[in-house]
């Protein structure tokens, strides 16, 4: 049976106060029982670190949403006291093998995970472009077959371009460009030159065939960990479902400033698949990315695409189920299974998706 206590645990509150000071880099004397973790500078990454420290130090596995809803040492201590010996609901095992979303996010870029993922991306790009079933899947999900792997359809890409407004003469960097067909779309829509980078050799090999026919397109096999372009090259930098793969968001934003022109515009589409947050408690301003964009660019504009994202994954599951036989008939069971496993998992998690656009202040 669960033991639930309503007594306030001052020892626990004291331990939490120490963690607040440590993770928010505050003097202990300045942390009060009502210091709000997020208002005092906490963000998604420091929140996850706090959860990990609470588990290690206090032996309590607290869900992330509990911190968002109880953001002070006093209220979180009360929450922990109320937890008694209850365990939080187990999260399903993610397709990449991690046991929970927290573990998945914290370990997302460890070496072993990156190697496995990168090998898989290349395999994906070797299969997807020749599969008629996959082409049909993309048409039904995104509106057109660009061999997309991300979550952005043309409504989202057009929205991003409408905020960023590249024009002929501008130079756009497309991070994680895959086959380069979205880069080509950006060129066709805006007239700007587009440079795409990706670390999947099969994707870049295909993209090079587009560049051979169009001098406004260029593609490079490049890891976003090590982007090398001359300073001041780009007027615009877009990252469509790729920023997650940078081990340090802070460093990549600094890199954007270095390779960007003085008034460079940055547009980032990304999802936050954190199942324990709720719509009421999660907000773009609470993300680490928002904090870092404010620091590096002096601000950002954020649009909420969470509703679209949750619908997107549900639709992927449905469409894949109707196309299963087509994938199998053409011998693409592996491709089908990857996409289905991923879609099924993601459709079972509440997703938060935001588009961030920042412009460097001159
Ligand atoms: C989720 S897909 C998005 C692709 C494309 N932007 C789209 O919307 O369909 C992520 C892309 O990033 C690439 N990628 C992953 N890690 C990378 C890294 N470290 N450096 C460069 N590209 C990377 C993958 O090969 C893949 O093409």
Based on the coordinates given, report the CATH architecture of the largest domain. Answer: 3-Layer(aba) Sandwich
CATH superfamily of the largest domain: Vaccinia Virus protein VP39
User: What ions, cofactors and ligands are bound?
Assistant: S-adenosylmethionine
Instruction: List the uncertain runs.
Output: 1-6
Q: Let me know the average pLDDT.
A: 87
- The helix count comes to 14
Looking at the structure, what is the overall shape? Answer: globular
Order of helices and strands: HHHHHHHHEHEHEEHEHEHHE
Instruction: Count the domains.
Output: 2
Which secondary-structure class do the elements indicate?
alpha/beta
End-to-end distance = 61 Å
Give me the Rg, rounded.
Answer: 22 Å
* Major beta sheet, strand line-up: 3-2-1-4-5-7-6
CATH class of the largest domain: Alpha Beta
Main sheet record: 7 strands, mixed
Helix content: 40-55%
Number of strands: 7
* CATH fold naming of the largest domain: Rossmann fold
Describe the structure in your own words.
By secondary structure, this protein is of the alpha/beta class. The protein has 2 domains: 10-83, Non-ribosomal Peptide Synthetase Peptidyl Carrier Protein, Chain A; 112-359, 3-Layer(aba) Sandwich (Rossmann fold). It has 14 helices and 7 strands. The chain has a 7-stranded mixed β-sheet with strand order 3-2-1-4-5-7-6, with helices on both faces. Helix 9 (181-190) links the parallel strand 1 and strand 2. The longest helix is centred in the C-terminal third of the chain and has 24 residues, at 306-329. The radius of gyration is 22 Å and the shape is globular. The N and C termini lie far apart (61 Å). Residues 121, 148-150, 152, 176, 178, 182, 197-200, 203, 223-225, 240-242, 245 line the site of S-adenosylmethionine (SAM).
């Amino acid at each position: 049976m669960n033991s639930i206590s309503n007594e306030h645990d001052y020892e626990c509150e004291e331990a939490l106060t120490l963690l607040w000071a440590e993770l928010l880099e505050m003097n202990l004397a300045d942390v009060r029982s009502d210091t709000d973790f997020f208002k005092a500078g906490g963000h998604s990454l420091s929140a996850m670190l706090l959860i990990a420290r609470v588990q290690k130090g206090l032996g309590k596995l607290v869900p992330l949403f509990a911190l968002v809803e109880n953001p002070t040492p006093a209220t979180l201590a009360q929450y922990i006291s109320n937890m008694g010996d209850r365990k939080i609901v187990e999260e399903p095992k993610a397709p990449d093998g991690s046991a929970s979303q927290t573990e998945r996010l914290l370990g997302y870029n460890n070496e072993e995970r990156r190697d496995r993922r990168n090998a898989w991306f290349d395999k994906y790009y070797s299969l997807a472009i020749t599969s008629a079933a996959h082409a049909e899947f993309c048409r039904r999900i995104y509106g057109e077959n660009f061999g997309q792997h991300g979550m952005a359809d043309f409504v989202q890409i057009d929205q991003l371009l409408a905020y960023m407004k590249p024009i002929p003469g501008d130079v756009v960097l497309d991070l994680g460009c895959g086959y380069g067909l979205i880069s080509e779309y950006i060129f066709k829509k805006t007239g700007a030159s587009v440079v795409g980078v990706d670390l999947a050799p099969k994707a870049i090999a295909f993209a090079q065939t587009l560049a051979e026919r169009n001098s406004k397109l260029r593609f490079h096999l490049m890891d976003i960990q090590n982007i090398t372009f001359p300073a001041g090259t780009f007027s615009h930098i877009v990252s469509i479902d790729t920023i997650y793969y940078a081990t340090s968001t802070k460093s990549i934003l600094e890199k954007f400033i270095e390779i960007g022109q003085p008034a460079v515009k940055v547009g980032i589409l990304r999802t936050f698949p954190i199942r324990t947050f709720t719509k009421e408690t999660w907000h773009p301003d609470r993300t680490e990315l928002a904090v870092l964009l404010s620091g590096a660019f002096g601000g950002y504009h954020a649009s909420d695409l969470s509703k679209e994202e949750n619908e997107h994954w549900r639709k992927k599951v449905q469409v894949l189920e109707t196309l299963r036989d087509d994938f199998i008939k053409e011998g693409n069971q592996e491709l089908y299974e990857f996409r289905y496993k991923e879609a099924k998992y993601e459709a079972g998690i509440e997703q938060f998706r935001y588009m961030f656009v920042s412009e460097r202040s001159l």
